[in-house]
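Progress narrative, work stream C.
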Amino acid sequence: MNTLARIRAAFDGAGVTGRLHALDIDSGAEINAGADHPVVTASVHKLCLLVALHQQAAAGLVDLTEQIECPPAARTPGPTGLAAMLDPVRMSLRDAAYLMMAVSDNAAADVLLERVGLDAVNDTTIRLGLTHTHALHTFGQVLATIRQDAGPGGPQALTDPYVITRLRALDPARTNHSTPRDMTRLLAAVWRDEACAPDHDAAIRRLLGLQVWPHRMASGFPFDDVHVAGKTGSLPTVRNEVGVIEYPDGGRYAIAVFTRAASTAATLPPADAVIGTTARIAVDALRAL
C-alpha cells in the first residue's frame, strides 16, 4: 500500500474525513492528501494571530511586555487559561500569547486580537502568500455563531447531526479558514526565519513547543529525541493540528492535518490519534526519499 493509500485508510478507520499536507522544510519534498482543500481552522488560526503580533512587535508597533487588564466579565468563554479564571488578571502581551498557544486560551486570544486587529491578521497572511487563509471572526464571535446556530437546545443540541449541518462555524466559506498547504507554508516560514525577524520567529517556535496537548500529532512521535511543536484546533466534529517535527539528524517537517468526524461525540480518541498516525506515515515517507 502506498503512502496516500495508507493515510486514507487511517482516516477511514478513525471515522473521519481528513486533509493533510506534509513538507520537508529544507528539501521542499511533500506529501499531498487533499492539501488544497478548504478547511475550518478553529484554534489553528491562533498561529496566524501570533505571527501578526510578532510582526507588529518587530515593526515597533507593539511592545510585547505591555501590560493588559483582563477583567473576568469581558472574557471570551473557554475551558482553559484566562477563560477559566474567576478574578481580574494583569499580564503582558507575550504572556497572553503563551496562554493562547500552550492551552489554546480563547480569552487570551481575543485580548490579543483586540490589540492587534483582525485586519492585521489577514494582512499578515496575505503578505506571506497564504492566499487561501482568511479570518472572518474573532474567537468569541465563532463561539457566538455556534450558540446561535444550535438554537434553544443549547450545547446538548450539538449531538444532533442535523444541528451540526447548520453550524456556520463548520463551513469554511462562512468562518475562519485555510488549507493544509497554506499552514505548512506558514510553519516553514517561521522555521526558516522568514515570517518575522529571526528573534521573533524564534519566540514563535518556542511557544509552539510549549503546547501541552500530547494526544494528537505528538502521539505519532513517542521518542525522547524527536521534538514536536504545534497548535491544535477543535470544534464540534472538528479536530485539527498543525506543527513541525524535528529529528536529531536535522530533519524538520511541517505537517498540517485537518479532520471532520462522522460522529458528533465530544470525546473520540480514534479521531484524535489519527492525526498523529497520519503525520507519522507522512514524515516516514518524506524521510525515506
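Work stream C, second folded protein:
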Amino acid sequence: MISGRLQLQRSKPKVLVENKISFAGPESELSIYDTFEQASRVALQSDQLLFCGMVTGKKVMHSVDDYEAAFYPHESFIMAPNQAVEIDFPEAKIHQPTTCLAIEISTERVQQIADKLNLSAPIDKQYGHWQYQPSLMHTHHNQQTQALLDRIVAIYTENEQDRSYLIDLAISELIVRLMRHQTRDFLLHHSHNDPQFNGLNAALHYIKQHLSEPLDINALCRQACMSRSKFFQQFKQHLGCTPMVYQQQSRLTQAATLIEQGQQITQVCYSLGYHSASHFSRLFKQFYGICPVDYKLRHLAS
C-alpha cells in the first residue's frame, strides 16, 4: 500500500541502486528504498534500530559474522543500532525494482516503550523484564504486522491533520510487536532447555511435544499447576495470545520449516494434525502471505 504521491516520486529515480525517499516523524524516520538493477554487497548501517520490511523482489542479507539469508515480501529484518550488513539484489530490474521500506527508531523511544510494558504488563521476574535485545532478527511477520506496516506508510506519506500523533501510536505498536517477538523466542528457548523451570515452561514444552494433536487445555493446566483462569492470564501476558492461537502459529512455523527442507506439502499438512489440505493452505497463506506451493518454489529457487 503506497500512496499515489509516493508512486509519482518513485517514477523518477535519482539512482538505480538503493534509490531512497525519506519521511521524517517524531523519533523515527521512514525510508522507501528502490533498486532498479542487480547489485551485490551494498552496505547498510544505521545508528538507530532499523526495522526493514520487504515490499517487492528479493534481497540477500550478509552480516559481519557470516550470517546470510534471503529476504522476501511479508518478512521483517531488524538491525540493532550500529550493526552493519551488506545486501545483494539478485532480481532487480529497471521495470521491476526490488523495494523495501525501512523505519529508523530512536533507542530512547524503544526504551520508553519497554519501561511502559514493565509497568503495565510485567513478565514473571524469573524471566527478567521487558527489554530490547540488540541483535539481528529475520522473521516472517503475520497479517497484523503487515497491516501495521501498510498503515505506517500511509500515515508518513499523507498529510493527515494528526500525522505526528498517529505516527507515534503506530511506531509504539511496532516496538511492542518487536519486543513481544523477542520475548517469545526467549521463552521458547528457555522452555526447551529447562521444561521444569516453572509452570509456563512446562506448558510450552507440552504444546511442542504434542503439536499435531488437538489442544487439551485441562492437560496444559495440569502441566502448569495453575487454574484455568490463571493459566490463560499468564499465557496471554507472556506470549501475547491464547494457547489455541499459539499452537496454530507454532504449527504453521513448523510447516514452513519442513517445506523449506523439501518435504511434500500434503505430508506436512497431515503430519501436523490438519485434516484438510485446502484448510491448511488457506491458513498458511493468511499467516505467510503466500500459499504453500509458492513458498516451496521460492525456497527451491533460493
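The longest strand covers residues 28-35. No further action is required on this item.
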